[in-house]
Amino acid sequence: xxxxxxxxxxxxxxxxxxxxxxxxxxxxxxxxxxxxxxxxxxxxxxxxxxxxxxxxxxxxxxxxxxxxxxxxxxxxxxxxxxxxxxxxxxxxxxxxxxxxxxxxxxxxxxxxxxxxxxxxxxxxxxxxxxxxxxxxxxxxxxxxxxxxxxxxxxxxxxxxxxxxxxxxxxxxxxxxxxxxxxxxxxxxxxxxxxxxxxxxxxxxxxxxxxxxxxxxxxxxxxxxxxxxxxxxxxxxxxxxxxxxxxxxxxxxxxxxxxxxxxxxxxxxxxxxxxxxxxxxxxxxxxxxxxxxxxxxxxxxxxxxxxxxxxxxxxxxxxxxxxxxxxxxxxxxxxxxxxxxxxxxxxxxxxxxxxxxxxxxxxxxxxxxxxxxxxxxxxxxxxxxxxxxxxxxxxxxxxxxxxxxxxxxxxxxxxxxxxxxxxxxxxxxxxxxxxxxxxxxxxxxxxxxxxxxxxxxxxxxxxxxxxxxxxxxxxxxxxxxxxxxxxxxxxxxxxxxxxxxxxxxxxxxxxxxxxxxxxxxxxx
Length: 523
Description:
Layout: H1 2-38, H2 42-61, H3 67-79, H4 89-115, H5 117-124, H6 130-143, H7 145-162, H8 167-171, H9 173-186, H10 194-209, H11 212-218, H12 232-262, H13 269-305, H14 308-345, H15 352-365, H16 369-384, H17 389-397, H18 399-412, H19 417-438, H20 447-475, H21 482-507, H22 511-522
Helix pairs in contact: 1-9, 1-13, 1-14, 2-6, 2-7, 2-12, 2-13, 3-7, 3-12, 3-13, 4-7, 5-6, 6-10, 7-10, 9-10, 12-17, 12-18, 13-14, 13-15, 13-16, 14-15, 14-16, 14-20, 14-21, 15-19, 16-19, 17-19, 18-19, 20-21, 21-22
């Protein structure tokens, strides 16, 4: 199986990467438009505070890699004989039951969110000004329908991926971004952000609708029912889903802790953290999605067949590639963050002060890239063994540490915005380490070769970073028009980074570098 699956995984990874890049670019364009119209201000802070719970539903719970997507893939991929098979009556009945329960559950939460918006926002940003809380509450009421949409989108994504339909799930977030961009350009004078909140809700609805025709063509038919009694497969879904939802939701408590501390800082602080996260997710999201989406169904199948050696091979290969690609990302963020953010965002209401705040947040967040890709990879192995409880326990155990770190870094050490993202990086490292240790209860992964190669990559990365930093400092002495200077500097430093880093890894005989060069030569 391993020999047959490898080419298809690589092919799927490239395809998903291209589609995800297109989707991320559109998301990036949306952020540029939002930054241009609203900057890092009270209005943008209110919007991003209000967006946190809806985004929990549509991105964290329902997105690719979220609990609903992961649980759907883990269970349905074992019920479908092959990727091209039509769903049986049993599978369709399971799908209908799952959809019925999911719809009702999120509908109740959405209604409660609407009627208690003031109290929810008042609790989350209790340290904020009254006008900030009031504006965030108004935005949240408009966006509560997104809560209903989130879980359903996750189920749709999972089913499509079970049938090797990778493009639509990864491309559909473009719809939300496109709707927001169009609406904001049509309505130029939105001083309260209400139009932005409404456009976000409309975009999410369109994102849901576009999935449905493809599922119908595959053969899925929904007939609302409550076929719960003695339903083994539904029980398997819930056994995976509820701890995963709790884990994701509990994980969001860390973000709410960040929101509280950010509300004690300068105006625009939370907007800066959100933009730093969006920029961070642009390359990292592409990387993780491209490799883990096609690998996860394979992990699940291999676990079901007891082929543990194949899981080890795929895991080491996948994480090794992710490490190899992640290190230059860290280098480029640390050396080019200010120039890149200024070039892309500094216009309209987004001024030089906002550039500094976002750059500071992003640089400290970049330290989480390596543990982030390891954590997300190994979490898929847990899910393949139908174990979502261990990630949940680890996530909940980190909440107190997050609060303590925020207090020490932000209040005691006065690090401000940087303290928020540095504590996030530390928490990500702790979670990744604990997940890596406790996986041995399920399977003994081969870390020796993985981290031996990782050590070589770190050495290559450190040497590359010094050279890129020196190049950047030399560039700063050259007089050029602002945007020309930033563009040329980014291109030159990036070219040096990639060529030197790849060359050093070739010198160290790293297989990932050889494969990269061979593919470029073949193309």
